[in-house]
Amino acid sequence: MVRWIITFLVIAIIAAIFGFGNIAGAATGIAKIIFYIFIVLLVLSLLKRLFSR
Fold first, then answer.
1. pTM
2. 37 neighbors 4 (Cβ within 8 angstroms)
């Protein structure tokens, strides 16, 4: 998932450099959504590991 986040952020930066504002905004939005999903899954995984002992 982190690789996807980095990929979409790179796409957003390249699109912003070339003046494609809509594409840059969409790629940034997608990266944010994937980042939040990653954080939630990370917390759930840590909680599961903590309480399974």
1. 0.77
2. no
